[in-house]
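Annotated sample (chain length 128).
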Amino acid sequence: MKNKTTPSKVLIIDDEGDLCLLLNILLEGKDVEHVQSIAKAEEYLLQEKPSLIILDNRLPDGFGIDFLSFVKKEHPSIKVIMISGVDAAAEDVALENGADAFLRKPFSKEQLHQTVNELLNREEEVSL
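Output written by the structure step:
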């Protein structure tokens, strides 16, 4: 029985403003926030605990794959979807480092919705 009245919190870590805006629109109904760097993501995670992180690999201050290990160590319950458009080998490394899913850019609205819903539903089932 789901008794959740507040939407799932989603943090987008990506430095492309257009993509963040698009993801925000596609994730309508979710509480979406975004930051543009690993440093800002670390600050955010000190204050908030999102259910899901959508993490780009190439960021201005480092690689999402490296940050992924930190997230999974410090916040093991947060689900992470890694996104990348340039690194073909990033998918294997991301999944090995703890990513719950990987989406290669460009991805479809359906791929995004299916992946987000699978991860968030899995989280709710575990917490019941």
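Annotation: The radius of gyration is 14 Å.
Annotation: The helical segments are 17-26, 38-47, 64-74, 90-96, 109-127.
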